[in-house]
Amino acid sequence: MGTFYYGGGHGGPPIGFDIDDSLLIPLKQVIIAKLRRGESFLVTVPALDHGLEVREALWMNPAVPLRFVIHETASLPPDRDRLEALMRDANTPRGIALTP
């Protein structure tokens, strides 16, 4: 299980989201590829708010600090199908929607 940190810097501490490494690895690749091209997009992640399950929409933008903590990179083979599916989703108005 890895952690994706969003935000921080001038706006306060980053928000951390626990994401399975098998999903976090291709998600990181898609986010980095899109941001390198200057393309902003939406990622919706499951989260907890005061003990309630909610979905948080995160706007991926080069100005927002991001950090990825991945624990099992050596033992996980690349999942090309998942990577391509995430990239397709990132290119839609809905963006990427992660499920628990």
Give a topology summary.
Layout: E1 2-6, E2 15-19, H1 21-36, E3 41-49, E4 52-60, E5 66-69, H2 80-90, E6 96-97
Helix pairs in contact: 1-2
What does this protein look like?
This protein is α+β, with helices and mostly antiparallel strands. The protein has one domain. Helix content is 27%, strand content 34%. It contains two helices and six strands; from the N terminus they run E-E-H-E-E-E-H-E. The strands form two sheets. The chain has a three-stranded antiparallel sheet. Strands 4-3-6 form a three-stranded mixed sheet. Strand 3 and strand 4 form a beta hairpin. The protein is globular. The mean pLDDT is 90.
Shape descriptor: globular
Given as residue ranges, the uncertain stretches (5+ residues, pLDDT < 50) are none
Distance between the termini: 12 Å
Provide a count of the helices: 2
Regarding quaternary structure, what we see is single chain
For the biggest β-sheet, the strand order reads: 2-1-5
**How many individual β-strands?**
6
Give the rounded overall mean pLDDT.
90
